[in-house]
Amino acid sequence: xxxYVLKRLALAVPALFGVSLLVFSMSHLVPGDPxxxxxxxxxxxxxxxxxxxxxxxxxxxxxxxxxxVGRALHGDLGTSIRTGRPVLQEIAEQFPATxxxxxxxxxxxxxxxxxxxxxxxxxxxxxxxGAVMTFVLLGISTPTFFSGLLLIIVFSLYLSWLPVAxxxxxxxxxxxxxxxxxxxxxxxxxxxxSSLLEELxxxxxxxxxxxxxxxxGVVVRHVWKNAMIPVVTILGLxxxxxxxxxxxVESVFARQGxxxxxxxxxxxxxxxxxxxxxxxxxxxxxxxxLLVDVFYAALDPRIKYR
Length: 306
Prior knowledge:
Layout: H1 2-29, H2 34-39, H3 45-55, H4 61-73, H5 87-122, H6 126-141, H7 144-158, H8 171-200, H9 203-210, H10 215-252, H11 258-267, H12 271-299
Helix pairs in contact: 1-12, 5-6, 5-8, 5-10, 6-8, 7-8, 7-10, 8-10, 10-11, 10-12, 11-12
């Protein structure tokens, strides 16, 4: 197991270098000059050239990239052009809010998706199966910003059950996590249903039924572990998508986090903030995928790591 983890960490290094190169290139190809944004329209050419030299933006791109990678390897993601503060410090302030929202959405998606898919697979009724597929279709097709606004109108403005703005407690987290996790829950429900139906057709399930075991006992004791492997895979992949989707949800619900932080950085052409945020999200995504691979062994002892 330890050798496998070390191997995966080694394979993550070129992936991170690829991400850093991609985000560095894209951030510099985006139209707009951060120096012009900072100084305004009345700035003279001399002032812009002086500030560009102070920020190191007058150097060749490959020199800027190598400097960025070198500092990142030492835990330095640079200094924000807008605020003049260390980017890593700013990300550390915003990351917990996004992480809490993402984990809440993942938990919601896992519980609702797995339970709904299990009921649809084991009920044997077409009506329930059709209801699940309708839920899946609505969950996948509805944009996050639309579902977020709809939740605000119904549960906050009309019914006054839950707050919109951020605050203490779990109440302000409910609506954003539902809006963010609903599409993932729909996908997990479909995957769970398909995986369970495939397992229920296998010989070991027929043998269990022949011994007189009940359906719920067979599903809980035997079928679930085998059926959950693709579900866990999708859930791990969904984590990165949910963290990226937090950009929209945090904007709709006026929440602090990496989403709004990234949007503001893009609008201001703050290259260090953009590069640092994407790099941190990429590291979190790779780490979650590693945890998912390791978790496979707990679900299926036949899986061996080399």
